[in-house]
């Protein structure tokens, strides 16, 4: 059988997304149907809507979600009907060369549902990040479901499905920030503030938040920043110098660039200590280039890394971080700064241009 439900669909580049009827097919052998309870409004969905990802319209938007498994395919063993899950877009295959080398966080062939969801006229939908969860129900592969404690509210733990995990993971997994180290985070949206929270969790003693927006600096302080710096009208070298002043003249052990433009990456490169680490987690536009003196790359040593999804393994990280939230040790609830419903998703996507919220969450059902 199939189910007709409401979902938010982007039909064409830079056109408003619409709430329409979509058809969720009967799951394949390893697929599951998930009843969505909440989905975060993420910049990646804005990029899908506005043509910044690819042109495989129409898109069923949404990917940062929590809900309950309602139907399972005949071969599903990973979850059962009724399980409370956070959806992920890294359902590792176990067979590609990355998985076989033991670096599953770089899996090249992550699993998705075996069938497409469609519009009511049969037009196939492209599910955002293989999930498509601005909908009352969605169809995913069983490996895209990670069980977490049902005590955690869906609008909170659903954020682990993308942005918050990307930021925390950039600090903890990719950057490997350690107790007693210093870290600077450039760009204090949801991802950057999550990196701040991750650094505090790890025991970093100097945590510097950098942004052009004073309101975002205040949010970073609430999440653990020991110092903040407004960077508007400052050059990359001036910002780097100020970070050095806050770290004994040396520069930070780790600098996280959560913006992804040449100016912020140059700042990150020069704001780190000798042999320090730079982690790029902000996603650059395809046409962006950067030029650095090769002698400086050689002479400063350390590591220049990129972070995909916070180098997370959902089955390891989502339950762990959920438990830390329930223990009061990780303030995930502070990231929820706005709520909407499915009809309000397109307006919430537009509001991302203004940068006034860490995360707006579409509350779908219970």
TrEMBL record:
Record-level Gene Ontology MF annotations: mycothiol-dependent formaldehyde dehydrogenase activity
UniProt keyword terms in alphabetical order: Metal-binding, NAD, Oxidoreductase, Zinc
Superkingdom of source: Bacteria
Alcohol dehydrogenase-like N-terminal domain span: 28-149
Keyword Nucleotide-binding: no
EC numbers on record: 1.1.1.306
Cofactor(s) in the UniProt record: Zn(2+)
Chain ranges of the Alcohol dehydrogenase-like C-terminal domain: 190-325
Family from the record: Belongs to the zinc-containing alcohol dehydrogenase family.
PANTHER family: ALCOHOL DEHYDROGENASE, ALCOHOL DEHYDROGENASE CLASS-3
Protein name per its UniProtKB record: S-(Hydroxymethyl)mycothiol dehydrogenase
